[in-house]
Amino acid sequence: MNKDLPRWATAFALPLLNLLSALLVTALVIHLLGESPTESLAILINSAVINPEGLSYTLFYASTFIFTGLAVSIAMEAGLFNIGAEGQMYFAGLGLTLAMLTFDSSLPALFLIPVGMIGAALFGALWAFVPGYLQAKRGSHVVVTTIMFNYIAAALMNTVIVKLVPPGEQNPASRAFAAAAEMPRLNQWFPVLGETPLNISFFLAIIALVIYGVVVSRSAWGFKLRATGLNKHAAHYAGIRISKMIIIVMLISGALAGLGSVNSIMGSTHYLSLNFVGGAGFIGIAIALMGRQHPVGIFLSALLFGSLTQGGFDLSLEKQNIPPETVILVQGLIILFCGAMENLYAPALAKLLKLKK
Amino acid sequence: MTLDDLHIGSILVSTVRNAPVLIFAGMAGLFAERSGVIDIGLEGKILASAFVSAAVAFTTQNPWYGVMAGIVVSMMLASLQAYIAITQKGNQLVAGIAINIAMSGLTFVVAQYIFQQGGRTPDLGQARLFDVVLPGTAAVEGIPFIGWVYAHLIGGHSVLVYMAFALVPLVHWIVYHSRFGLRLRACGENPHAADAAGVSVERQRYMAMLIAGFLCSFSGAYLSIVQSGFFLRDMSAGAGYLALTAMVFGNWRPLYTFMGCLMFGFFGAVQIQIEGVELPGIGRLPGAMIQMVPYVLTVIVLAGLMAKSVAPKSLGIPFVKSR
Predict the structure, then answer these.
(1) Which residue, B293, B77, B43, is CA-closest to A144?
(2) Contacts of residue A129 in chain B, CB cutoff 8 Å?
(3) DSSP label at A185?
(4) Residue A357: its pLDDT value, please?
(5) CB contact (8 A) between residue B102 and residue A343
(6) What ipTM does this complex have?
(7) Which domains can be identified in chain A, with CATH numbers?
(8) Looking at chain A, which residue has its C-alpha nearest residue B248?
């Protein structure tokens, strides 16, 4: 952190410059692929923001990304780099689905949604528990173990989903849930949104952001959390039990990543399918770094990635050289510029500000 | 009946064939981390060099041009990592993950752009690196055990396999018996002492990262132009992380790291052999369960050994010359 710079510079100017650099490199890649960056940007904005149905898809994707972004952020606040949101959300989808397959014929909608959320959060937390425990008690680096758990989740779900396929079906997916288990969609109140999967998960995500903000920066526990992240040894000296903190934070992180699956499954497909996560967990890393773990930053970054995902699909239809996978490159670049090189422009900016004085 | 018909024979042969990917990357990681820079970006460098090697080898129909192009790209990525870790003093873990994710996307996009085959390259055909037949193989082939060992276990591999195995004693010598190695270890353990002794820590770390990039490229080239004969999306499948774990297992020492690589190579070989085999009492294991083996093993190795292993003391800490 750069102490010579005013707060507006570190909180807004630097992240913005870093983001612009990442987007500039993307524009260069698009140019090299023989497509026009400005034209692509126009298509992207038109599809993801201006068109109301597109905008609702942007918000739909953002609802999932807010949860994965929160998952990575809260771990980061404690100094843990959780790369495993992808696997945690994937495994959470299983918890949610098992809960739904058991209860969707007996419980009313009012109870089904919380039950699904609990199932997802529980399984997500479970998948983060082992890496958290090993980090706390054995010192195994959480980065490598969570990556391994991503691979393990992928292999495990391959086997499990095949077992959930209803007889006579070919598609590797569970049966569809009863209608009561569907998250209410927003287009029943706002018909302008058109055919959209956008559902009340979006509001749940906003509530989660608010809770996160209050807990992390306004509560005693949040103080302990941040103390652990800033200086483990000092926190330990102050009486915080580091290993307990690590395990609890990883459980919360996994649960948050797991809640991302509620939007993807109960809000959209209504069944568990192979690879339904589709990289949302990794996008969470980019969001946490770009948003500097601040609720407002996470929200804005999630919106950006929501529009990149939505606009990216439409863009790939019109420009065949820009497949939807380009978003993965953008993610990497944003992590690079906003995370690893966050202070790239700090010296130049400090110089500029001094000159003005 | 020859030994080749027995499973143990083919397991040994595929152990030798699986190990080089991990050995090159493991030795690369060893140079980086011994100098004090965490290299979690091995995976991305492997993937990038695998793609570039395959693409150039296919286009020029010469595998060695492919290898060289892979070296260039991998060293460029390593320089970027070095710039972030050493000059920018940024977060080395984040830098590595960024490279891994960016390369996963970029290799697909470029492969799709050039070859239009769903993110893979065409089969390399004649542009693959072929296995060498050692001189005298025909003469000893008839001898029961020795013939098999000479023709299939020792002989009959690609040049890169021999390079990987020859690399291990070389790295051991460099790290423990050369002036460069002494300085390298000093920078990883106590950079301030190295600095006081007149060693440029920054220069030493940059050198280490460039060596890491150079070595890591062979992992990628081996994957695409030796093992499979084409590039496939995300084909490295965690090899970079396995190599890193082998290095932790090997306590950041070349010879033990090599053993770790052989161990992972062995389990990879068993994994392939065990597929479809009726195990007594268990029955046939589903393929997906077997896929998990190396990853579960990595977690177990890390859980069992991390507490005991001794990482370079200044690993991951940017060097600030003075305050």
Answers:
(1) B43
(2) none
(3) B
(4) 56
(5) no
(6) 0.86
(7) 40-185+193-356 (1.10.3470)
(8) A140
SS3 A273: strand
Residue A173's SS3 state is strand
What is the residue extent of each domain of chain B?
7-130+146-237
For tokens 């069944």, the residue is A271
The answer to whether A201 touches A262, Cβ cutoff 8 Å, is yes
Within chain A, how many helices (H) and strands (E) appear? 15, 0
What distance in Å separates the CA atoms of residue B20 and residue B224, rounded to the nearest whole number? 12
The position carrying tokens 């420009």 is: A319
Interatomic CA distance for residues A75 and A73, integer angstroms = 5
- B chain contacts of residue A341, beta-carbon cutoff 8 Å: 84, 88, 90, 95
Rg (alpha carbons) of chain B, rounded to whole number: 20
For residue B105, which of A303, A219, A308 has the smallest C-alpha distance?
A: A308
Spatial distance between the Cα atoms of B28 and B213, rounded to a whole number of angstroms: 7
Which positions ≥6 away from A212 have C-beta within 8 Å? A70, A73, A74, A295, A298
Q: Which two tokens stand for residue B260?
A: 């770790």
Q: Which amino acid is at B204?
A: Q
Q: Which two tokens stand for residue B244?
A: 């890193």
Strand partners, A273: A173
* Neighbour-count burial of A274, counting CB atoms closer than 10 A to its CB (0-12 exposed, 13-18 middle, 19+ buried): middle
* Neighbour-count burial for A279-318, b at 16+ CB within 10 Å, e otherwise: bbbbbbbbbbbbbbbbbebbbbbbbbbbbbbbbbbbbbee
Q: Three-state SS for B284?
A: strand
- For tokens 């992207």, the residue is A44
Q: Which of B108, B113, B264 to mutate to test the interface with A (most CBs of A within 10 A)?
A: B113
Judged on CB neighbours under 10 Å (0-12, 13-18, 19+), B296 is middle
Determine the Cα–Cα distance for residues A187 and A56; give it in Å rounded to an integer.
9
> Which band of pLDDT confidence, cut at 50, 70 and 90, is reported for residue A11?
confident
- Please list every residue in chain A whose beta carbon sits closer than 8 Å to the beta carbon of residue B102: 328-329, 331-333, 335-336
The residue type of A21 is: S
Spatial separation of the C-alpha atoms in residues A251 and A126, rounded to whole Å: 7
Q: Is the pLDDT of residue B19 over 60?
A: yes
Q: Could you tell me which chain B residue has the CA closest to the CA of A130?
A: B299
User: Could you give the C-alpha distances from B168 to A334, B143, B245, B261, in angstroms and in order?
Assistant: 37, 30, 17, 11
Amino acid at A164: L
Q: Residue A117 above 80 pLDDT?
A: yes
- Give Cβ neighbours of residue A337 (< 8 Å, ≥ 6 apart): A18, A19, A21, A22, A25, A344
Task: Give the whole-angstrom CA distance, residue A331 versus residue B207.
Answer: 29
Contact A141 B302 (CB under 8 A): yes
Which backbone phi and psi does B257 adopt, to 5 degrees? -60, -40
pLDDT of residue A325: 87
Give me the residue from B102, B241, B304 closest to A144, CB to CB.
Answer: B241
- pLDDT range class, residue A107, cuts 50, 70, 90: confident
CB pairs under 8 A between A and B: 141
Cα distance between residue A52 and residue A191, in whole Å: 10
Partner-chain residue, chosen from B95, B104, B299, that has the shortest CB–CB distance to A340: B95
Angstrom distance (rounded) from CA A216 to CA A168: 49
- What letter represents residue B208's amino acid? A
Tokens 């890393």 correspond to A285
